Amino acid sequence: MEKPTHSIEYETMLLGRYYHLTLSRAERAGDHLDRSAYVLLSRIQLVGPMSIGQLSEAFDLDPSTLNRQTSAMLRAGLVERIPDPDGGIARKFHISAEGERRLRCQRDEIVRSMDKVLDGWTPEEVATFAACLQRFNTDIERLTGRPWPRP
């Protein structure tokens, strides 16, 4: 008999597939943010301006990877480079009005899509599922030592 974690692994893989399909629809609509931009913008939106070093620490990614991703976001007008509001030397990335708009549009599309999926669920089932997902993610964050800020 398989352990329940085998089922969780498989179901999270399918969930990732569903998310990818939702992003593909957004891409066809013309307001697509690639996954890295979506995640980076989400983090910057929650915590405020961040430097390459702060992004590197938050995501455990090499600064060269983040330089490529943030350069693409700058070219697309999704972020702006600003002086450190706290007076530090490093310049920081701040989400632009266009980045805010596109992130909001994509998030709204994903939520509408999830609303359709969860249409037959009771409010209690949706709340329980949300609480379980949050617990799952916070336990991952605890193990990796990289907590994710929540609104």
Automatic annotation (TrEMBL):
It comes from the Bacteria. Residues 1-138 form the HTH marR-type domain. InterPro entries: HTH_MarR-typ, WH-like_DNA-bd_sf, WH_DNA-bd_sf. This is MarR family winged helix-turn-helix transcriptional regulator. It comes from Streptosporangium amethystogenes subsp. fukuiense.
